[in-house]
Design a protein that fits this description.
Helix Hairpins; binds 2-(butylsulfanyl)adenosine; 5-stranded antiparallel beta sheet; D-amino Acid Aminotransferase, Chain A, domain 1; single chain; 704 residues
């Protein structure tokens, strides 16, 4: 391709000439992008390329009405956005289960076969491809044009980063080809190549700015720039590897769809290949592990995916990950350093957790200065002492771990570590109960660490998320007695108004009138809170975000949640109420026992009463599956099913919002009876419960 810049300056162009030239520039720049990014064979220098873009911009400035829909300028320096809006994903963006050992990969293969009811001989094609260590992105194309780009966020809701993604040269603003569906949400990974990461950090250093710890953080930081022209200056890469919502698909295999992506102009990973056995999968893993350092971008493992889409559909999801895919992770990175001190943190459940303060060391590009030591048995087992040289490992986002001690380097005076027997925060006895490895503070109600930690959790990002009320403020307000329990947050403003001028927050150092006003406003804004966040915020043991959501989805309202938990507390294990909770997908005895422990403690119930007097808990809007006629129904499977395995049937039912119970009771809505159904069928008939054949069930579930 040759450059055919007209000799006329922009000012000399007539309107008609400008129009022709804009068309030519759009085409030419797109061709250079293609050569540079997809074929790795640029034909012009960066300076010449920039000159083309500049000329395009200058012409557009003179004739704004001539700006083309496919103009290169639409992909760079779009106007800055105030903040990112939220985007709800039509299909949640899930994560992947992990495998570390070869056996776990073999087990994955076996599990897939078992679930689908396939014989050991039946071939199962798996797509194997690198797991890119970047950030996932969702790109919605409507009639071939990029209409929306969103981050993963919490998987259900991400951020609208369209303006920024538009500036990424590797993301085509238009797809080419005649078989592009009307609407398709392409998913993939944004990453920063090693060379660009190095350059970026050099520039940051020269400008006296903060360095990025690794390419992934740099990519995330670059994408989440409020000014898209900054994103535009960071040469982010992109690989498409999946999809969410789509009006239709171009193929019926994983590899077929991804290859179509490639044909439409989306970058796809060149290493992707199809494997026909576990041995081939492991062979691919080893081969890529060797090439890893030379790829030019970070990968942290291999992803295996069942190739047939009808099988993917049948396999479905469990918890937050697909049954049809798994990530086979590369071993984490390691380094040695010295233990400077062993410190104890008291968590919100009173657990005393030892941590090692380390001499800072770089592990896989990140400076590590702390590592968890888990508990005292673990310290004893590894015999970790202050002054020891230790081997530390960091795997992805996980908190660094101490793998072991380099005994030859132990200083002579080093003494075995002894865990304190009193809580460092309140002085209460810290004990180990039964077979528990964790030592806990017994001062539950008086221990400031526990109360403070609970409050910090309560206001944290995924809980109440109160702007201006973070860990620092909680520390301060707690110590001054302004906020002792969650409800106090919502009475803070009213109580403050009743104080004498000198005691009010506005008279405190560092709290101007404006910032106090903003804080009170931020608190007011959170008086309404969705049920799942509310449950998570309570800080009940074993009730994390996912469990909070599972409970909220199944129970719908705060009242239903409370009634269910209190009934299980009163009835105990074996009661119907306990069983009802156990029937909720994702909930098992560990969680139920933790709920019971929480609701058995009168102080918790009192704090909860105080809190709900102040806030409105919003019911969870039920998901799309509520539309299914089986949503909310309790079903029992019995006998041998012919069309699918029992596990699969259970998964399908749960996906549609039904509860699957193990035995027939008065709450059962349907019994699905396969061949040779026995006592459960008899019991259902006796109790007058509707009995369906497998085919009738499939029709009702919309699967026939
Ligand atoms: S497939 C249903 N393929 O890994 C989830 N993910 O741990 C399907 N990732 O959030 C994900 N490379 O950001 C898939 N080749 C690849 C990937 C990949 C990187 C990321 C992705 C996801 C995370 C899951």
């Amino acid at each position: 391709m040759t450059q055919r810049m007209t000799t006329k300056t922009v000012d000399e162009l007539t309107r008609a000439e400008a129009k022709t030239e804009l068309a030519r520039l759009a085409k030419e720049i797109a061709q250079h992008d293609e050569l540079y990014y997809r074929r790795d064979a640029p034909e012009i220098s960066d300076a010449d390329y920039d000159a083309l873009r500049l000329r395009n911009a200058a012409i557009e400035e003179r004739f704004p009405e001539l700006r083309r829909p496919d103009s290169p300028s639409r992909r760079i320096g779009a106007s800055p956005v105030e903040a990112f809006g939220k985007v709800r994903h039509a299909v949640p963006m899930l994560s992947l289960g992990n495998a570390f050992a070869d056996e776990e990969v073999a087990e994955f293969g076996a599990r897939v076969r078992r679930f689908l009811g396939l014989g050991a001989k039946e071939p199962v094609e798996m797509v194997a491809e690198p797991k890119i260590d970047g950030l996932s992105i969702s790109l919605t194309y409507v009639r071939s044009r990029l209409a929306l780009a969103a981050t993963r966020g919490d998987g259900e809701e991400g951020e609208n980063v369209t303006a920024n993604v538009m500036t990424i040269r590797q993301v085509p603003p238009r797809l080419t080809g005649t078989d592009v569906p009307e609407r398709i949400e392409v998913r993939g990974e944004i990453y920063l190549p090693h060379a660009d990461f190095k350059k970026l950090n050099e520039e940051q250093a020269a400008a006296g700015a903060k360095l990025f710890a690794n390419p992934r953080n740099a990519a995330a930081g670059s994408l989440r720039q409020l000014d898209p022209s900054i994103t535009a200056r960071r040469p982010l890469g992109f690989f498409a590897y999946g999809w969410g919502d789509a009006s239709s698909l171009p193929a019926n295999t994983q590899s077929g769809v991804v290859e179509a992506f490639g044909a439409w102009g989306l970058p796809i990973n060149p290493l992707m290949r199809i494997c026909r056995s576990v041995d081939e999968m492991l062979g691919f893993y080893r081969k890529v592990a060797l090439e890893r350092a030379d790829l030019g971008y970070d990968i942290d493992g291999i992803v295996y995916k069942v190739n047939r889409l009808d099988w993917q559909e049948r396999l479905g999801f469990v918890s937050r990950a697909p049954r049809w895919a798994i990530a086979h992770k590369f071993p984490a990175e390691e380094a040695t350093t010295r233990v400077l001190e062993i410190t104890i943190q008291v968590g919100r459940t009173g657990a005393l957790t030892p941590a090692a303060k380390l001499e800072p060391v770089t592990v896989g590009g990140v400076v590590v200065s702390n590592a968890t030591l888990h508990n005292e048995d673990e310290i004893a087992r590894k015999d970790i002492r202050v002054g020891d040289t230790v081997l530390v490992r960091r795997a992805g986002d996980v908190i660094p771990q101490v793998l072991g001690v380099v005994k030859e380097k132990r200083p002579q005076h080093a003494k075995p570590y002894k865990m304190p027997e009193v809580c460092p925060a309140c002085g209460s006895k810290a004990v180990r109960e039964g077979g528990d490895v964790v030592r806990r503070c017994t001062g539950g109600l008086i221990c400031p660490a526990q109360r403070k930690e609970r409050l910090k959790h309560f206001v944290s990002r995924n809980a109440f998320d109160i702007e201006g009320l973070g860990e620092k403020q909680i520390e301060l307000f707690y110590d001054e007695g302004r906020i002792i329990q969650p409800a106090d947050i919502f009475t803070l403003a009213a109580r403050d108004a009743r104080l004498s001028e000198a005691d009010r927050l506005t008279s405190k150092k560092g709290f101007g009138a404006k910032s106090v006003e903003n804080l009170f406003k931020a608190i007011e804004a959170r008086r309404k809170v969705p049920l799942d966040r509310f449950i998570y915020a309570l800080g009940i043991r074993h009730v994390g975000e996912t469990t909070g959501r599972d409970l909220a989805k199944a129970l719908g309202t705060f009242e239903a949640f409370r009634t269910a938990a209190e009934a299980a507390t009163a009835g105990g294990e074996g009661s119907d109420a306990y069983q009802d909770l156990d029937n909720i997908e994702g909930i098992g005895s560990t969680v139920i026992d933790a709920l019971i422990a929480f609701f058995s403690e009168p102080h918790n119930v009192a704090a909860l009463d105080d809190l709900v007097a102040e806030v409105t808990v919003e019911p969870l809007v039920r998901s799309r599956s509520a539309a299914s006629p089986v949503a909310g129904k309790t079903v029992v499977f019995t006998g041998t099913l012919e069309r699918m395995t029992r596990n699969e049937a259970k998964a399908v039912a749960e996906r549609l919002g039904a509860k699957v119970a193990g035995s027939v009771s008065k709450k059962t809505d349907y019994v699905i009876a396969g061949a040779d159904a026995g006592s459960k069928l008899a019991k259902a008939r006796e109790a007058g419960v509707s009995v369906l054949t497998e085919d009738e069930w499939l029709r009702l579930a919309g699967r026939a």
